[in-house]
């Protein structure tokens, strides 16, 4: 048996191919299926099974596309309520894969329909367990994403209790030598304290993972529910798409309409002012010139997460990049969260009728009371340390809806922790508060404070 791990760093997502005697099973495949086809070709093997550990909230899976292209069976829990052709895969069910076997373990907690997959080699040895969003390295999955999404909805407290028993009754009873392969690593919003490691063992996790230590159910539930990260707007939307199965990757992104570059006022005049503008160009280009009311969401490792946190599901938007290569890459990245269908037009631009205000950092240091300071960091960051005591804390993911709370009697300075979110935040405020005379992005200068 050979196990191949695939990583999407931007979404901190791991997917897997299990190869045994010319047959491949895929687990939690990413939106673009091509890497799995390449793996199968490289090994002269056939993809015969695709397994979803649960309907994912943070990315769009290619399970249906792979089924349609290869005729591989899709296996999911019967509790998922899948709207595509599938085979139920729950406690007691096994899949023969070449000389190996895959066994289903129902492990609710992150979601009511979560399963883990135990890989058993040709000698009957339990070799690895694919834990989806149930057990991570150093943490376990959050239980608060399925209160209003999916075929089955459950209160977070009930799911947290189920997580307690899934970890203790199903996973830590496995041999210490069993390798743990999770669906996510550090940076994912599907948990709150994930390790940078991409795999571990049951034994190592029993020794070091907080959620596997001896404690009462009540203590566990309280600890698990505390300080979970925010839920991006797109999460329930993606659960719905994955429950139905998404359109094929290439077919869907090919439908995105491209416009000739916007380089002058006449070019820009054809745009609908009611449609949101997402400008992904580097900071210096945006500040020099950008379209009125554009939101500055730079091409960065967390582009997908912030796009799906700021833009509502099914809300149309224009997508701007600095060149065609970047534009095509960003369309593909938007498709990972199912947002490619919302792109009204995609185009390159170096034109703008707005510029960003320059800022005297030294004057600000000496006269902070002359400004309204808006902190767009997450609540947990603000709780740990307020950088400016008099700041108004509104997290970036709520900013579009809460701009009315910001006073406009002083210039507005926006900050985060390093500059990426404040760039987006200052542009959101500028586009939403028409009588704000000066909105300034503190940017990387916040590090000096």
UniProtKB/TrEMBL annotation:
Keyword match Metal-binding: yes
Gene Ontology terms for molecular function: hydrolase activity; metal ion binding; sulfur dioxygenase activity
Record's keyword terms, sorted: Hydrolase, Metal-binding
Domain annotation Rhodanese: ranges: 271-356, 367-423
Source species, domain of life: Bacteria
InterPro entries: Metallo-B-lactamas, Mito_Persulfide_Diox, POD-like_MBL-fold, Rhodanese-like_dom, Rhodanese-like_dom_sf, RibonucZ/Hydroxyglut_hydro
Any single biological process term in GO: hydrogen sulfide metabolic process
Gene3D superfamilies: Rhodanese-like domain (3.40.250.10), Ribonuclease Z/Hydroxyacylglutathione hydrolase-like (3.60.15.10)
Name this polypeptide is given: MBL fold metallo-hydrolase
Species of provenance: Fluviicola chungangensis
């Amino acid at each position: 048996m050979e196990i191949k791990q695939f990583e999407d760093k931007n979404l901190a997502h791991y997917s897997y191919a299990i190869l045994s005697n010319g047959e491949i099973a895929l687990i939690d495949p990413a939106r673009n299926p091509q890497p799995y086809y390449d793996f199968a070709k490289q090994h002269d093997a056939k993809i015969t099974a695709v397994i979803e550990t649960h309907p994912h909230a943070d990315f769009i899976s290619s399970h249906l596309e792979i089924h349609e292209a290869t005729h591989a069976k899709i296996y999911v829990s019967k509790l998922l309520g899948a709207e595509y052709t599938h085979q139920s895969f729950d406690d007691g069910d096994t899949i023969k894969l070449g000389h190996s076997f895959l066994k289903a373990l129902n492990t609710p907690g992150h979601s009511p329909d979560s399963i883990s997959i135990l890989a058993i080699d040709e000698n009957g040895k339990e070799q690895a367990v694919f834990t989806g969003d149930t057990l991570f390295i150093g943490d376990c999955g959050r239980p608060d994403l399925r209160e209003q999404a999916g075929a089955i909805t459950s209160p977070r407290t009930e799911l947290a209790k189920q997580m307690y028993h899934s970890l203790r009754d199903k996973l830590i009873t496995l041999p210490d030598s069993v390798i743990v392969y999770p669906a996510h690593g550090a940076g994912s919003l599907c948990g709150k304290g994930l390790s940078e490691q991409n795999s571990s063992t049951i034994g190592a996790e029993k020794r070091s993972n907080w959620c596997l230590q001896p404690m009462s159910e009540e203590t566990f539930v309280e600890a698990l529910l505390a300080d979970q990260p925010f839920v991006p707007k797109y999460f329930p939307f993606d659960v719905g798409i994955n429950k139905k199965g998404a359109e094929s990757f290439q077919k869907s992104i090919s439908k995105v309409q491209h416009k000739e570059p916007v380089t002058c006022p006449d070019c820009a005049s054809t745009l609908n002012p009611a449609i949101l503008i997402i400008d992904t160009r580097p900071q210096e280009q945006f500040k020099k010139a950008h379209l009125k009311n554009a939101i500055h969401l730079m091409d960065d490792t967390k582009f997908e997460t912030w796009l799906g946190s700021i833009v509502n599901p099914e809300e149309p938007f224009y997508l701007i990049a600095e060149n065609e290569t970047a534009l095509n890459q960003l369309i593909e990245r938007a498709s990972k969260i199912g947002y490619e269908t919302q792109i009204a037009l995609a185009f390159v631009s170096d034109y703008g009728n707005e510029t960003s205000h320059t800022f005297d950092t030294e004057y600000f240091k000496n006269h902070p009371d002359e400004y309204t300071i808006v902190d767009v960091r997450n609540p947990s960051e603000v709780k740990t340390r307020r950088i400016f005591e008099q700041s108004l804390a509104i997290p970036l993911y709520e900013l579009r809806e809460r701009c009315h709370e910001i006073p406009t009697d002083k210039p507005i300075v926006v900050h985060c922790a390093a500059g990426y979110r404040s760039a987006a935040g200052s542009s959101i405020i500028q586009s939403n508060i028409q009588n704000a005379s000066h909105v300034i992005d503190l940017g990387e200068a916040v590090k000096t404070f």
